Every structure is written in structure tokens, then in C-alpha cells.
What we know:
The protein has 227 residues and is α+β, with helices and mostly antiparallel strands. The protein has 8 helices and 8 strands.
Amino acid sequence: MQYLVFALFVAILLGVFGLSFYFAAKRRKALMQWAAAKGLSFSRNKDSAMERRFAAFQCLRQGSHRYAYNIMEGKWSGRPITAFDYHYQTESRDSKGKHQTHHHHFSAVVLHSLVPLKPLFIRPESFFDKITEFFGLEDIDFESAEFSRKFFVKAEDRKWAYDVIHTRTMQFLLDKPQFTIQFDPEQVIAYRSSKFKPAQFEEATEVVRGVLDLLPDYLVKEMKGEG
């Protein structure tokens, strides 16, 4: 009887691994096809240097055993792009003190800016933001009540935030799929807490491109030192 239970357990375990391998291969093939259609290179290899390459982005510095994979690179509307899946792990203990390892996966796109930038963080508003707001930890509010209700915005330079997120940009973000967006001095990342479908890589990239294309002329000249 014990042998049958053990054999059943092994069969289930092999089935789980088999399905995981199948879906990973299927996803990889779909991403390869999408990358090829967009003129991007593709690499399935793990890259643990992504967090150093884009050191300002908080999402790439979570947990341990961090690495990017399914990496797609090239040019998008004249801007360098890096798109990838990302893995990190966290540790915890259950109620009995047993150690547990949790593997997390998400996707992201990084689009290079053609002008210098300043730090800016935009993400969909959450329930917990309402709680922190009650305790006085507010984000930046904008003239659009709908935008302020749907997005959490944080920036050290509030004027920069208002310059970047003007009326047209607010409407653009309201009309598009929502992603968490972060600026560093040279590029912008867009991501979610889960893996993208192939089409969502394009959606995320187009959201970032749209925000950058909507930077006002006076701001572009100022950041280039031409103002």
C-alpha cells in the first residue's frame, strides 16, 4: 500500500513538472515569434546582471536569486528596448516553523529615453493607499479627480511630476492598460506583478512610448539644457 501511495505521489510530481516544462516551452516559443515579428533579438538564458544594469528600479531588487530570462532586445520606434521575464524568491516559515521558499515571476519592459529624466513613480492606486492616505502619507494629487483616484504618483520633484503628467498624459494613461511605471535618469520601466502575455509586452511598451512622446517641448528643451 505504501508503495502504491509513493508511486502515485511520484507520478503526480512528474506530471506537474511535465506540465510546467510544456507551458514554459510554449510561452518561450510565443515570445520568440513576437520578438522576431518586432525585429528584436531573443535569449532564453538567465541573466543575473539585470538588477545592476538597471539599478534604480526597485522591482529588480526584491528577494534573492534574482535573474531575467526570455530576454528581448533591440529598437522600438528609435529607442533601445529591453523586455524580459524576471524571477526572484522569498523565504518564510509556516505556523509550524517549517521553512518555505516562494518563487515569484513577473514581466517588464525598459525603454530608453531620448532625453534626460528625473525619478518618477506611477502605479495603479490600491486599497492600502487609501489607508496610508488616512494617516497622512499622501501621494501627489492632480487636477483630474479620476486620475488621482486611479493612480498613485510619487516624485521627489513635484514640479517634475506635474510637468510630465499634464492633462493629455493623464487622459492617455486613463485610456490605456494600467502598469506600474518608474523613471530613472535614462530610461523607463513598465511592469506588473505577474507575467505578460506576448501582446502585453507591446501594450506596456506603447504606454511608456506614449508617455515619453507626450513630454512637453519646453520640458524636453529644459532637460537637454537648451532652455
